[in-house]
Amino acid sequence: MNLSCNLYVDGEFEGVINSKKEVNIGKNGHIKGDVTTKRLVVQGYIEGSINAGRVEIKAAGRVNGTIESSELVIEAKGIFEGTSAVKGVSPVPTPEKLQISKVEETKVSLTK
Questions:
Q1: For the segment 78-111, what is each residue's pLDDT rounded down to a tens digit?
Q2: Does an H or E element contain 104, and which?
Q3: Fewer CB within 10 A of the end CB, N or C, for the chain?
Q4: 38: phi then psi, degrees, rounded to nearest 5
Q5: Which residues pair with 7 in a beta bridge?
Q6: Does residue 13 have a pLDDT over 80?
Q7: Cβ count within 10 A of residue 70
Q8: Could you read off the pLDDT of 24-71 as tens digits, one per residue?
């Protein structure tokens, strides 16, 4: 399903959702599949892959799957089981890379 408007799901849906705006899963909503959207609000249940700018899991919400987003908000009693990746963030340097950087900095300061 490809949309350029908001979507509210308060029943069962199985498949792929691509929305340029917001997808809201109501308390009785259950989505099984992949969701790509600007903003996702989960009050019901979703199982699958999520790609969104912002994901909000409300107190009654439950997500089982993969989330890739710039922002992830999980309220108290909201449940998330799976993996998450943050969009647009460089990876954390490993200890080996940190050691190399410190050694190079030391060499530079000694040669001044």
A1: 999 999 999 887 766 666 665 655 555 555 555 5
A2: helix 95-111
A3: C
A4: -75, -45
A5: 23
A6: yes
A7: 12
A8: 999 999 999 999 999 999 999 999 999 999 999 999 999 999 999 999
